[in-house]
Q: What sequence folds into this?
């Protein structure tokens, strides 16, 4: 064999060995260091330096530390957390939880900590929530985004319904409420992260907790504060289980907090201190019996089905510090579905068409809008929203609209409509300051998406509240025979009785 050919083969073998060594080093167990909450930044940096020296040059060192302590360097991946969150991971715990207000960075914290754990050793991780109709409802996208942001794509394989790492770790995703039997099959998981844990029922906790029973297994949970009577609050804050760490935090603890959330926070701090305390600082709702839509709505993903009525579009105009809003909704049977929203503070009139374009189909359908701003409606008609019309108001139109909305068996809000979900939680009746009695008059706050809904459904409401809705439902029951939920017989045969039941329930709750 010619010498040149021998040399070529030797080079190829050497190159192959180099590739194999590099792959072995990449697949080797990653070293992970966690900064303790009481550990000084300089002391942790010294630990990192010492650990880096002792590792193979191609082996990765992952450092989980407080924001601003370290920067990325060759062979070192830095995973930053809000400083307050470090105490969640100081020592072995069965339960690790964080609750409080919006913007505190809890989702990022738990997602990054799970990524670090998955790199540290082979770990089976279940990401759960009360309702999950599809993978889009889960934190799958957040996990994959964080893996890419941290420069760790070579260590993970992201698939449509799961995420795995080179050392055998895997992320799984499931809903609790509708998959009880499936949840019991996850008993081998070492970590369960429950997102939006405020929505988890006591029954779901009773199924999940004894199911996750592997030695050293952990349950992590994050949620925004809501009611003092919520099962999650009672179980983990009022009477926390042994071997747990549960902390409360807010946007004040998040070093990445900024626009656009900070703009919304400042707006609420100026306009409603009670709501600010609840939404942003994590205070509990104190007058839950004053909530107008308590028990009437849920936040779930959905896709409009064939035979649904709609879509219906409604717009509410911002005044002074109030937002401009647009909403898109559907009706199927006796269920109202809120699919899209547009929400903006301080939006100039010439930018409103562009803002509304974020709601699919808005230019192609009639949009019913607040009649208080005829000049705005005229401008919108000249700029692509030719089918926009004003909605007349009458004495009691707000109350009629509330009665109509409450007459649905259920109002389902898509998770993308964050402001709609917030308003349905906070929109309340007035409460007497001296007696604490709940009054019949709604507070004129947290109703901008809700007002847009009233305008969208105006032809169904008109004067008379729930009665016109029942007449509409009776008509549709005859016309639609496919892909509809059957109506209860009394809707068509005894509308007067139903009206009394609906309005009576509204005043009783």
A:
């Amino acid at each position: 064999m010619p010498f040149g050919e021998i040399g070529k083969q030797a080079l190829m073998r050497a190159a192959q060995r180099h590739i194999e060594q590099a792959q072995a080093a990449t697949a080797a167990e990653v070293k992970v260091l966690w900064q303790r909450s009481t550990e000084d930044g300089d002391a942790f940096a010294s630990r990192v330096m010492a650990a880096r020296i002792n590792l193979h040059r191609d082996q990765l060192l992952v450092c989980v530390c407080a924001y601003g302590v370290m920067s990325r360097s060759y062979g070192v991946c830095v995973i930053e957390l809000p400083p307050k969150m470090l105490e969640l991971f100081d020592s072995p715990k069965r339960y690790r939880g964080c609750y409080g207000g919006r913007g505190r960075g809890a989702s990022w914290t738990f997602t990054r900590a799970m990524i670090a754990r998955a790199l540290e050793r082979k770990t089976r991780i279940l990401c759960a929530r009360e309702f999950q109709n599809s993978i889009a409802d889960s934190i799958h996208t957040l996990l994959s985004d964080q893996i890419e942001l941290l420069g760790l794509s070579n260590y993970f394989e992201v698939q449509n319904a799961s995420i795995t790492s080179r050392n055998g770790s895997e992320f799984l995703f499931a809903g609790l409420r509708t998959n009880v039997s499936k949840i019991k099959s996850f008993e081998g998981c070492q970590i369960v992260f429950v997102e939006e844990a405020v929505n988890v029922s006591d029954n779901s906790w009773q199924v999940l907790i004894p199911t996750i029973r592997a030695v050293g297994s952990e349950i992590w949970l994050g949620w925004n504060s809501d009611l003092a009577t919520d099962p999650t609050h009672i179980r983990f804050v009022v009477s926390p289980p042994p071997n747990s760490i549960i902390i409360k935090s807010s946007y004040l603890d998040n070093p990445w907090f900024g626009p656009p959330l900070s703009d919304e926070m400042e707006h609420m701090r100026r306009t409603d201190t009670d709501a600010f305390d609840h939404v942003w600082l994590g205070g509990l709702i104190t007058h839950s019996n004053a909530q107008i839509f308590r028990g009437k709505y849920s936040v779930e993903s959905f896709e409009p089905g064939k035979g649904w009525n709609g879509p219906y579009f409604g717009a509410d105009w911002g005044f002074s510090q109030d937002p401009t809003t647009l909403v898109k909704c559907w009706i199927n049977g006796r269920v109202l579905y809120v699919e899209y929203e547009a929400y903006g503070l301080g939006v100039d009139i010439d930018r409103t068409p562009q803002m509304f374009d974020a709601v699919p189909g808005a230019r192609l359908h009639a949009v019913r809008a607040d009649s208080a701003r005829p000049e705005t409606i005229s401008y919108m008609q000249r700029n692509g929203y030719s089918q926009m019309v004003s909605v007349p108001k009458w004495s009691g139109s707000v109350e009629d609209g509330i009665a109509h909305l409450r007459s649905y068996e259920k109002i389902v809000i898509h998770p993308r409509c964050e402001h709609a979900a917030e308003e349905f939680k906070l929109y309340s009746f007035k409460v007497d300051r001296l007696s604490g009695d709940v009054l019949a008059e709604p507070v004129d706050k947290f109703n901008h998406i809700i007002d847009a809904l009233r305008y969208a459904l105006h032809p169904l409401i008109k004067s008379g509240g729930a009665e016109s809705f029942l007449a509409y439902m009776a008509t549709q029951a005859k016309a639609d025979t496919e892909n509809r939920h059957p109506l209860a017989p009394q809707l068509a045969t005894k509308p007067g009785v139903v009206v009394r039941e609906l309005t009576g329930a509204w005043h009783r709750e």
Notes: The first strand starts at residue 31 and ends at 34. Residues 290-508 form a domain with the Nucleotidyltransferase; domain 5 fold (CATH 3.30.420.280). The CA atoms of residues 21 and 75 lie 16 Å apart. The chain is about 35% helix and 20% strand.
